[in-house]
Write a structure and sequence with these properties.
about 40% helix, Bacterial SCP orthologue domain-containing protein, 4 helices, alpha+beta, Nonspecific Lipid-transfer Protein, Chain A, single chain, SCP_3, SCP2_sterol-bd_dom_sf, globular, about 130 residues
């Protein structure tokens, strides 16, 4: 079943592009642009890796469930991935690898299915 998108694809890609250009220049991305880029990329992950066994959290901007497997319904899910927005967008756009992200100490992944490396990058920007 396809996910319901809340971020328009054109607007989401534009936000990701703006984030990538700003990050390349070592600038700071405006909060609304950062939020749109995170939410769009989470929706993209959920549409490519449909399922409910892993919860991906990018506080304070968004959360999604993805990866096929046992469905979780109550309490803290057994498979959780959480990281800051900038790190998530770097992963989603291929600027860094899953292994590099783990080494930063900012990526927290727990559970047998919490490795997202097979699903990343989602969209590559130089």
């Amino acid at each position: 079943m396809a996910i319901k998108r809340r971020i328009d694809e054109t607007a989401g890609r534009a936000a990701l592009r703006e984030w990538a250009q700003t990050a390349q220049g070592q600038g700071k991305t405006a909060r609304p642009v950062l939020a749109a880029a995170v939410r769009f990329s989470l929706e993209e992950l959920a549409s490519r890796a449909e399922g409910n066994s892993v919860e991906v959290r990018i506080p304070p901007f968004g959360v999604t469930q993805c990866i096929a497997g046992p469905r979780h319904t109550r309490g803290t899910p057994p498979n959780v991935v959480e990281m800051p927005a900038e790190l998530w967008l770097s992963l989603a756009t291929g600027r860094i690898s899953w292994g590099e992200a783990l080494q930063t100490g900012q990526l927290h992944a727990s559970g047998l299915r919490a490795d997202l490396s097979a699903h990343l990058p989602l969209i590559e920007y130089p």
